[in-house]
Structures
1.
Amino acid sequence: MKIMKQILITGLLICAVNLIQAQPYRIDVTIKGLADSTIFLAVHGGTAKYSVDTAVLDKNGKASFSKPRTLEGGMYFIALNGVALFDFLVSADGNDSFGIITGKDDYSKIEFVNSPENTAMLAYLDYRNQHQKKYEQMIEKLKASAENSDEQKELRNRLLDFNRPLIAFSDSLADKYEGKFLATVVNAFKPPVEPDFNLPEDEPDRERKIAMNYYLFNKEHFLDNINFEDERILRTPFFEPDILDYYLKNVLVFKEADSIIPCIDKIMARMPIGSRTYRYILSHIFNFYSASAVMGHEKIVIYLGENYYLQPETTWESEKFRNDLINFIHRNKPTLIGKTSPDLLLPTPDGKRYESIHGLTANYTVLYFYDTDCGHCKEETPRIKAIYDKYKNRLGLEVYAVYVQTDEQKWLDFIDKNKLDWINVWDPYRTGNIYNTFNTATTPQIYLLDKNKEIIARRLDAENLDKLLQIYANRKQ
C-alpha cells in the first residue's frame, strides 16, 4: 500500500527532546573503575534514540550532566561508545537532580542517590522478573500435566489469580508515586483483571467459547491501564513495540477492517486532539496499516484519512500530505472489499462488440488490468490463464481482462502469444477512467468479484487468487 512518506517521520519529530524550558537539572554519574571517558545522556523515543548531553568521567569515574533547563519526562539512559549502559526515569517535575552509582564490571548493579522514584523502579523490575519466572514455571507444569487431570485443573485455577499480587504491587507503587512517571510506567504494564470465563464441562463447544470470551475481553481492555494523556510514555523503549504494536499485531488477531476501526476510535478518544500523544499514535497507527499487506486494510487507511487527517482540527500536516491522501482515497475507495464493482463498458479486439462487467453472468469474475510492457504482467498473465482454465468450468469463472495502454498491435500480439481466450477489452480513448476507478497507477491489478459483482478480494496476485478460488471449489464439493 504505497502512500506518502512524509508522515513516516512525524512520530520521530514530536518525540525529539525540547530543551527550552525553565528549571535546571543535574545528574551526577559515578562509574567505578572507568576514567577519562566520554559518556552520553540520551533519551528513548519509540524505536529511536536521541542524545541530550555529554560529559567526561574524571580520573575517579565521576561526571555531571547539568544545564539550567528542564529535561522532558521519559526514560533516559547513559551510553558509552555507542552502547546503552542502563535506563532510568525522569519525571520532569522540577525534582530531577540526583546521582547514579554503578561499576564498569556490572552495569546492572545500580544505586540511585536522592531519587526514591528510580530506586522504586529497580524494586519493581526485580519483582516483575521474579513474577515472570514463576509464571513460566507454572506454564511448563501445565503443559506437562495430563489433560483434564486434577493437577491441570488446579494449575488453571491458580493462573486465574496469578497476576493479582503483581497488580496489587503495581497499585501500591502507582499510589505512592502519583504524578511521577513511575506511576505511568507501572500502570502501563499492569495486566487487566480477567474475569472467570469458565463454563460447565458439558457446554457445547466449550473450549472455543472460553477462548472467544478471553479474546473479546483482551481486545476491549488490553489498553485500559495506559495513560494516553501522559506524553512521557512516548519517550520510552517499550511503549511502541511492546504495547502499541503488540496490541495491533497480536491482540487484534481478527484482521477485518470493520472490527479494527472501532478499536482505533476508542484509543484516539482517550487523548486531546492535537496533543503530542494524539499526533504520535495517530501517525503510528496510520503508518502501520498503510504498510499492511493484509487485504482490506486500505479501508482503515481511508477511514483514518477521512475521519482524522482531513478534519478541520488537524492542522499539523502539510498541504502535500493532505493532497496525496485525498488522491489515495479517491483511487481506492470505489473498489473496497464488500462494495459493488464500478461498471465498465469497453470494446473487444474486433471493435464491433462492447463488454460490460455488470452484464456478465459468471459465478465469479476476475478483473485483470495489465500492460503488455509490464514485466510483472508478462509473468502473471500465463499464471492467470492457467487459473482460468482450471476453474472456468468448476466454478463458472470468467476473466474480464483490460489492457490499460493504447498500442493496439502490441495488445493483439500479447493476446495471441498468451492464447487469451477470455474477455479481452481496452480503453483507447480513456472513457472509462480506469486509472482512478481501479487504481491502475501500477499493474497488474487483480480483483475478484462474486455473481452479484461485489468485490470479494483486491490487490491479488496469481498465487493468492488460486488459493482463494480453491477454497470456493472445496466448499462447492
2.
Amino acid sequence: MTLVRTWFAIACLTLLCSGCAAIPTVRQKPSFQNPFPQLARVAIIPFNNQSDVPTADMDQVTLAYYGQLQSIRGFEVVPVGVVVRALQANGGDINDVGQLRALGKTLGVDAVVVGSVTDYSPYYPKRMTLAVNWYATNPGFHPIPPGYGLPWGTAAEEYIPESHVWEAEFALAREQLATQTPVETDEFAQPTPPEGEQVAVEGLPPDWPDPSGFIPDAPKTQPPLAMQQDRPIISQIRSYSENDSVFTERAEKYYFFLDDARNGGWQGFLDRSNDFIRFCCYSHITEMLSLRGGAGKSQLAIRWGESR
C-alpha cells in the first residue's frame, strides 16, 4: 500500500507541476550492514595474485576491497598500510593459521581477511575471480555457513532469494556428506551383509550438521568453552564477467546511485579497470553478507530527468 500511495503522489505532482514533463525513475536501493557484532574490527592482508596475468595490480584490489568493506555499516577496517607494516615487523607465514591469529592479536582485530585473485582479464569482456577467507582471531569461533541468520521458520522465509536457499542447502549438504566420507583402509571396515539381510539403522553421527544451525542459538547463562578449530569462519569464491547479464544488470543498478559525473553510463563504468575491480569487490562483500543475514531494508529512491 505504501508503494501505491507513493506512486499516486508522484502522479499528482506530475500533473500539478506546469512544464513537468519528465517521468521519474524509481529504484530500490539495497542496504547492507555487519550482521556479526563479534567481528567488528577487521584487518586485510594484501591480496595474492594467483591468476595467469602477472601484471594484475594486487594493491589496487586490496584497496578496493578495503574501501568497499569499510563503507559497510558496522565494520572498522584497519588501514592497509598499518597491516603491511605489521607484517614487515613481525614476519610470519600468512598460510599458517596460528601466525595469522598472532597478527590479529597484534593489530587488535577480530578477524584477518586473506584473499586471492585466481583469474583475471583486463580486456573485454573483463573477468575476475575472487577467493576470500576470513580467519577469526579467537580460535573458538566456528564457521558461519551461508544461510546463517536468514529468517528461516518465520513468515519472512518465503522472501529469501532462491539463490540464497540453494547455496545454504548446498553448503549444508557438503558438511553433512563430509561426515560420511569413506575412510580408506586396507580392508573394509564393515563387510557387506548377505543379500536380504537388513542392516540396523543407527542414530546420526555426533558431528552431523543440523539445519537448525542456520538459526542462532539462544544466549547462554555462561560463556561456552572454546573448541579450537583452524578453518576459516567465512569462505567464499566468486567469478565475475563483464558479459554476464546478471552481473551487468546489478552494475547498472549500482551505478544509478553513484552520482558519477563522468560520461559513459554504467557501460563506461565497467570499462574502467579500477571501477570494474571496485564493483567486483562490492559484489563479493555484499553477497557474502546477504547470505548471512546482512541485507537490510531497501530504500525507495526517486530521480527526475534532466528536463524537470
3.
Amino acid sequence: MMIAVAPNGARKQKTDHPALPISPAELAATAVQCQEAGACMVHLHVRDVQGGHSLDVDAYRLATTTVRDAVGPDMIIQITTEAVGIYSVDQQIDMVRQVKPEAVSLAIRELCAHADDEVRAATFFSWLQAEKICPQYILYSIEDVMRFNSLRQRGIIPGDRVCVLFVLGRYSKTGASSPEELLPMLRAVADDVVWSVCAFGASEAACMLLAAELGGHARVGFENNMQLVNGDTASDNSALVTQVADAVEGFQRTVATGFEARAVIGL
C-alpha cells in the first residue's frame, strides 16, 4: 500500500498549525520525517513570498531539489498543477513542461473540463507519457469519474497503467468526507486503474482504512486534515502517516517503499 503525504496544500498557513511546512527547507524536513514514518511519496505545493499559492517554475525547481537532497533517491516527489482560481490551463501546462517533474497531479475538471479542451489536453498527456512523467488524475465526484472514463476510452488519456486520486469531501455540504463517498466512484472506474484516496476532515483515517481494505492507496497530510483518529490535533504530518502505516498490517498488506511504489505506478 502506497502512502503519500500532502504536507501543506495551497491555502493553509502556519496560523493553522505551526508545523505546517512552507519553505523548501521545511518541506524537506517534513518529507524526511514522513518517509521515516512510511510515506513513499510527497505531494508538493510551493508558495510565493507572501505565502500564497504559486506555480512558479523556479520555486518548484528549488523545492524539488531541496527535498530530493534530503530524502535521497527512494521517495517519489510529485508536484501539483492546482489552479486555485489563479492560473489558466496554459499556465498549468507550461509550468509542468518547464519543471519536468517525475510525477504530477492533474485535476480533470481544470485541465479538460469541456470538449474544446480535449485537443490541448491530449497533446499534453501524450507528452507526459513520452517524457516518462507519471500523471495522477484528480477526481472529485462521480461526474469527474465519468469524464475521466470517457477521456480514457477515447485515447485522450493514454497508457495501460493510469493513476487516479479520489478526493472525498472537497465539495460536500459540510466540507468533510465520509467513507461511503468512495464506493460509487470506485465502482465506476476500470479494475486496472491504480487508485488512491485523500479525504477532507476528521474522517480521513476511516477513509484510509477503507482504501486499505479494498486494495487502494492513501494520501494523508495537513493539506486535507490535521486531526488524528482519537480526536487530537496531529503534532505534525508524520503522525498522520504513522497512523495509516500502523494499520496496514491489519489488512494483510505492507507499506510500499518508494522503489516499490515506482513499480506500482509504472515509473
4.
Amino acid sequence: MKNIYIRLHICFCAAFCAALLAPAARAEDWKFSSSFNYDTGKYGGTDRTDSIYIPFTLKRYYSEGDIAVTVPLLRQSSTGQVIRVGGSPMRMTKGGGGAVSTSESGLGDILVRGTFIVANEGPRSCDLSFAGLLKLPTANKNKGLGTGELDEGAGLEFAKNVSPGWTVLADGYYTIIGDPAGVDFNNQLSLDMGFSRKLSGDLWLTALYETRSALLDGNSDPRDLSGTLDYSSSDGNHYFGGLLLGLSDGSPDLGLSAGLSRRF
C-alpha cells in the first residue's frame, strides 16, 4: 500500500506541474462558477441526513490543461453518520443509527484539482486527460463536516464525439482516503460513464451513471444517476441545473442543484 501511495503522490504532483508549466491559453483564461446543491437520504441507516453544499470554484485554463480551486460552504443536519468526501456525501459508520440529529454549518474541505491533456485531436476524436485531486482538511471534524484528514487522488477522463451533438463520457479515479484516529477507511475507486447531448443551439444535456466504493467494508457502494441541463446565454453566462437519483443505500435518495459559471 505504501508503494501505491508514493506512486499516486508522484502522479498527482506530475499533473499539477505539467499544467503549471504549460503555456497559458490565449483568451478567456479563467472561469468562476458556483452552485447550490441539496441532497437528502438515509444512506442505509434509520436516520435521514439533509445537507446543503455551496461550492465556489475558480479555474485557470492552460493550453495543455487547467487548475481549479474550490472553496465550499456546507450545512448538514444528521446524526454524524454521513460526511463529505471530495464534495460527495458518504456514510462513515456502520449500524442503523438512532443518535440525536444536529445541524452544523461552516467551511467545507477545500479541493484543488488539476488536469493535463494527454490526447486532443479535434472534432470526432478521442480526448483523454490525466487528473489529480487534493482534498485539504479544512472542514470542522468535530462538527461532522469532514474527516479532518488529507485525501489525494488521480485518474483519467475520456470523451469522444461519436456524431454531431453527441459526446460519450467516461472517467475513472483512485483516491487515497486519510484515516481519522480510530477509523480505517478504504481507499476509493470511482467510475462514471454517460453522454452529453446538444438539445438546441445553446442547451446541452449531460447524463451520467456513477459508482464509488464504500469507505467501510459492509456498507453499500454509492451508485447514482444524474442529469444536468446547461444553457449558454447571450450575456456570456452559463446556467445549469441538475437532478440526482440514488440507486443504492450508499447514495442520497435525491439531489438537486442549480448554478452558474462565466469565463473571463
